[in-house]
Specification:
Elements lengths: L15 H20 L6 H8 L3 H8 L2 H19 L8 H18 L1 H11 L5 H25 L5 H22 L5 H12 L1
Amino acid sequence: MSDSLSTASEQPQKSLADQSKEKILFTAMELFARNGYHKTPAARIAKATGISHGLLFYHFGSKEGLLQSIVNFSVQKIDQIVSVDETEPPARQLTQLSQNFRKSLVEETNFWELYHSLLFQPDLKDEIMQQLLGAFENYRKQLVHIFEQLGYLSPSDGMLQFEAMRNGIMISYLMQGKSYPLDRLFRNLVDRFS
């Protein structure tokens, strides 16, 4: 992956086993996103990672276990992004959320490309959709609460509109790249809803 998902200075030193497991995970994410989960055999992941087939199974048990690890990684990543200081005023919380998504999108572009690619693979929807949607459930409740505090007549509609626009901004950035006016559009998003 060309973008690092975190800098070396942010992480404690990892064991060789953890480094190997992480390399397998990220390689599998890329291959599943590019070729599809069902069209990517475990042997191809092992070869692309430069490890033995047995080591892949040692770390993950099966290809399904590897997919579950990818889903768990994605859920943890989303939990980090949607974490805000709930003691702040609601407009400030919206700003924090927008800044968190913007920062993650810029710094971890590959994660979001892979996430969206996996999310929209028809052969994976039944297997991972519920977990990935569940990762956003508390976030959606948090947004509804924010819109209640902001005095929206229909906080649920406010949440749905905010999410539709945030998702649109993120997907458009992934499609258009660094020339997309990301900062301005995230500022406009917060201004529109706060």
